[in-house]
Amino acid sequence: MTVDPLVSLLVGALGASLIGLVGAWIGAAFQSRREHKRWVREQRLEVYRALLAVADNAQEGIMSTTSTAFRKYMSALVVAQSAVVLLGPKAVSDIVGGFHRAAIKKGKSDPRITESAGLVDPKERERIGLEAIDDHNQTRADFTAAAQRALGIKP
Question: Where are the domains of the chain?
Answer without folding.
Answer: 44-151
